[in-house]
């Protein structure tokens, strides 16, 4: 790992913030969003890393409580913060806080079944996220074609209810504007007075976090959890690893390098 920011983290782990996306990064992608679960080795590796660095933060489009529920063991990661709903929501020490959901979400969600019926799309599923609503096409007969077909009508529906469309891996999410993973990460780095940063993501919604790593002026590394499905992130990353298996291996390597460096410094 001959990346200057990683060397900075190893030299000064007490200044390092490790930011991670959830789906596709810590949890393998599966057809049904309710079946997603964290990689079995991830909580242990994150617990080790959490005891070495300034902070571990998960920044996800999921509700924060869902990431915790689908990530058994995460609650044991020292000092873990989960920023859910792209940063609108914060979970820390077992407590979640968030502003109330805007009424547009409920109205848009209520209009969706009829809209989907009119469009005649098959196999599309709706995920009620309380503060947002996601329309999934992964289980449709033609997932990509169906996603393309839905783009314009969902953009109109979102605009009619003062929402924005967040595109992702076989999903179009209608959510409130005014927050993204970049802004969320930026605020967190300032709050913790970070001296270096890593962010690991797999999807389009992670691009603002990559931009925040660059804009921070800190030694920073943007890591792509690679997949054949999304290629845009790899092009903007400093390092590409092979999905959640590769992410866990990278984090374990980082934890080991920090521990070895601290041990040799102590000798
Ligand atoms: O920010 P993230 O943690 O990456 O969350 C983004 C979306 O992830 C989930 O959908 C994705 O994962 C599902 C389970 O593997 C998969 O079935 C789906 O195709 C993916 O798009 C989640 O369901 C969404 O609500 C999140 O916004």
UniProtKB/TrEMBL annotation:
It catalyses: alpha,alpha-trehalose 6-phosphate + H2O = alpha,alpha-trehalose + phosphate. The keyword Metal-binding applies. Its cofactor is Mg(2+). Its EC number is 3.1.3.12. The keyword Thylakoid does not apply. Pathway: Glycan biosynthesis; trehalose biosynthesis. InterPro entries: HAD-like_sf (IPR036412), HAD_sf (IPR023214), OTSB-like (IPR044651), Trehalose_PPase (IPR003337). Pfam families: Trehalose_PPase. One of its GO terms (molecular function) is trehalose-phosphatase activity. Keywords: Hydrolase, Magnesium, Metal-binding. Removes the phosphate from trehalose 6-phosphate to produce free trehalose. Belongs to the trehalose phosphatase family. This is Trehalose 6-phosphate phosphatase. It comes from Nonomuraea roseola.
